[in-house]
């Protein structure tokens, strides 16, 4: 669909495909009439709004192994970036397209194909550094401010059209085309300027974070070569127009610096393998490819291929086969959370949930703050129908990670198992609030309030949460009047 490229030309940074707003979303439609300077506060509010919309509809990868890896890599880059004005958040979307995007408030999303197409961690880091730079340089805000000066009557309709496009792509597309028909070349030129700046700033972030600066040029060149004669290039090339000149500039910058030699990252290879097997083609197609790669020694780490075969076994319901592979991998690398998670999933598949939980429980003592450990352990207890044990794991975890939707889902299941109606209703409310469905969340909080009976302390807490949700919705609605 062509609307992605037009949105990208307008906004300078690559935005995700318009997605329909969930039926349970209570978020207001935002305009930007009267906008002269987009403050950091307003940027954060807009970023929060977009995030709610993505949470409600985008196919987010919620596997804690992937999430923990991409967050760690992203924050490593952010720690060496300049002009960081707010906390960054990184997500992976299960979309088999070559694309990435950044938007208001420090939010960066990577499509799964970017990770699986990257040859190494440095190439992935180069894309993330580029997107981080779009945010730190405030390209989206600057574009909107510049557009307000040159075409003050259309900036509100542009942003409004984007939001309409999220609910109805065809209507959104028509609105966008009408809004920018007379200013399209201006938008494209501005985009090129933004892209050049993001290259330069992202390059510095990449290098100072310890990655190979040549990776940016290598990844760009690979894309140019791979899609040179393709009639419809991937969205990344539409949103981030590449030219031989741009690639040459990236290569020249890298050649002026000392060569960086990094060891291959096993974590990167394992995450890449996890995405290939769990979120890519079906097992019957993936398995022969992996077996062929193993036979021809076409791998960076042999254990990553075996790990992939273990994931394929899981996807094929061959839980004993997955367990056998996990045990072999753990014999060589007994502390790997990737292999321990594989074993836990295999045991759960064999209806041995309590055994899985007791296998992983000692790890919780060693790594009490690890999302991978906490979520896998809680899941094992839930699958063993021991909700009370899962709650013991999830309560402290959610106190530290209140926005983890997977943990919320597990908590709802665990509270149902122990038949605590009040707590179950409260956590259902929290999950709806996470998705931006504030009115429905308040309804569930009211149910929780009634179910709690004489528990005055918990009732006061719920009253506080309802007040918070009403205040947040009011802040979003106030954006329409600013």
UniProtKB/TrEMBL annotation:
Any GO CC annotation of this UniProt entry = periplasmic space
Q: Which residues form the Peptidase M48 domain?
A: 65-253
Q: Where is this chain's protein located in or outside the cell?
A: Periplasm
Q: How is the cofactor bound?
A: Binds 1 zinc ion per subunit.
Report the EC number(s), separated by commas if there are several. Answer: 3.4.-.-
* Gene3D superfamilies noted in UniProt: Metalloproteases ('zincins'), catalytic domain, Tetratricopeptide repeat domain
Start and stop residues of the TPR repeats: 303-336
Residues holding Zn(2+): 130, 134, 195
* GO terms of biological process kind: proteolysis involved in protein catabolic process
Function according to Swiss-Prot or TrEMBL = Functions as both a chaperone and a metalloprotease. Maintains the integrity of the outer membrane by promoting either the assembly or the elimination of outer membrane proteins, depending on their folding state.
Q: What is this protein called?
A: Beta-barrel assembly-enhancing protease
Q: Which organism is it from?
A: Gallaecimonas pentaromativorans
């Amino acid at each position: 669909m062509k609307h992605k490229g037009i949105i990208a030309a307008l906004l300078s940074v690559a935005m995700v495909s318009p997605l329909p707003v969930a039926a349970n979303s209570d978020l207001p439609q935002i305009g930007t009439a009267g906008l002269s300077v987009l403050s950091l506060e307003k940027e954060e509010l807009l970023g929060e709004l977009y995030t709610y919309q993505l949470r409600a509809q985008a196919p987010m990868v919620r596997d804690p192994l992937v999430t923990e890896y991409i967050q760690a890599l992203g924050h490593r880059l952010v720690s060496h970036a300049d002009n960081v004005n707010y906390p960054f958040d990184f997500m992976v979307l299960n979309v088999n397209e070559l694309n990435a995007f950044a938007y208001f408030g420090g939010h960066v999303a990577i499509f799964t194909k970017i990770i699986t197409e990257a040859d190494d961690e440095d190439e992935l880091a180069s894309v993330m550094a580029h997107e981080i730079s779009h945010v730190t340089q405030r390209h989206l805000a600057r574009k909107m401010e510049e557009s307000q000066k040159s075409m003050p009557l259309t900036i509100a309709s542009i942003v409004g059209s984007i939001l309409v496009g999220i609910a109805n792509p065809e209507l959104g597309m028509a609105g966008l085309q009408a809004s920018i028909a007379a200013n399209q070349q201006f938008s494209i030129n501005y985009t090129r300027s933004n892209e050049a700046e993001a290259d330069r700033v992202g390059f510095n972030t990449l290098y100072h974070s310890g990655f190979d600066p040549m990776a940016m040029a290598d990844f760009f060149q690979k894309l140019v070569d791979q899609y040179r004669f393709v009639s419809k290039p991937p969205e990344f090339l539409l949103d981030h127009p590449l030219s031989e000149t741009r690639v040459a500039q990236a290569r020249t910058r890298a050649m002026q610096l000392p060569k960086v030699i990094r060891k291959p990252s096993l974590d990167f290879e394992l995450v890449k393998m996890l995405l290939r097997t769990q979120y890519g083609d079906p097992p019957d197609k993936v398995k022969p490819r992996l077996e062929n790669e193993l036979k021809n020694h076409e791998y960076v780490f042999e254990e990553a291929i075996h790990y992939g075969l273990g994931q394929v076994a899981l996807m094929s319901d061959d839980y004993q086969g997955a367990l056998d592979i996990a045990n072999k991998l753990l014999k060589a690398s007994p502390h790997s959370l990737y292999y321990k998670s594989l074993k836990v999933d295999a045991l759960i598949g064999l209806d041995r949930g309590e055994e899985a939980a007791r296998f992983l429980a000692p790890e919780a003592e060693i790594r009490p703050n690890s999302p991978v450990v906490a979520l896998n352990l809680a899941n094992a207890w839930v699958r063993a129908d021991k909700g009370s044990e899962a709650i013991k794991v999830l309560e402290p975890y959610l106190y530290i990670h209140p926005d983890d939707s997977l943990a919320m889902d597990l908590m709802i299941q665990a509270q149902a198992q122990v038949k605590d109606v009040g707590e179950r209703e409260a956590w259902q409310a929290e999950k709806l609030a996470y998705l931006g469905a504030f009115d429905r969340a308040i309804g569930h909080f009211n149910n929780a309030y009634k179910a709690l009976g004489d528990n005055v302390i918990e009732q006061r807490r719920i009253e506080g949460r309802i007040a918070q949700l009403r205040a947040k919705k009011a802040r979003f609605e106030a954006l329409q009047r600013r």
